[in-house]
Design a protein that fits this description.
This is Lipocalin. With about 160 residues, the chain is an alpha+beta fold. It contains 3 helices and 10 strands, in the order H-H-E-E-E-H-E-E-E-E-E-E-E.
């Protein structure tokens, strides 16, 4: 009886743990990244304010650091004419479908700018992740149609 109880407790703890693919993703994402390019699913000129922070031009070339053991990070914007500086955030990777490898990535800024709205966060799709490259997608609605913003990173 005692062994059965211990076995059931062990199984319940394992089943509640973080999926292996998410643990592997956190290991891969750890470190410093450069946001190389941002593209849109539709052609045209758009005035997009990414993460309620700054323009596409300011985000391209920004550096990002991920510390998965505490789910924290920081990105730095340094462009001319941009609101330069470091922005802190917390993040979560959540596996959506183990068969396809799709993930949700939740990024929540923690700087003073966001203190008045502590629930503000941004859900992104972690579309691709390898040892040297990462791709995020965010789909929003523009004029009633889906509009996808793609952000491509390289590990430094």
């Amino acid at each position: 009886m005692k062994n059965t109880l211990l076995f059931l407790i062990a199984i319940s703890l394992i089943s509640c743990g973080t999926p292996k693919t998410v643990r592997v993703s956190k290991k891969v994402i750890k470190g410093d990244w450069l946001l190389n390019s941002i593209t849109y699913s539709e052609k045209g000129t758009y005035n997009v304010n990414l993460l309620n922070d700054d323009s596409k031009e300011c985000f391209e070339g920004s550096t990002w650091q991920f510390v998965p053991n505490n789910n924290r990070g920081v990105y730095n914007i340094n462009g001319i004419g941009c609101s330069a500086g470091a922005r802190n955030f917390i993040f979560t990777i959540k596996e959506i479908d183990p068969q396809t490898g799709l993930y949700d990535f939740l990024l929540k800024p923690t700087n003073e700018k966001y203190k008045s709205d502590t629930n503000q966060g941004f859900r992104l799709r972690l579309a691709a992740l390898s040892d040297m490259a990462m791709e995020w997608e965010q789909t929003v609605t523009v004029s009633g149609k889906p509009f996808t913003i793609t952000m491509k990173f390289n590990k430094q």
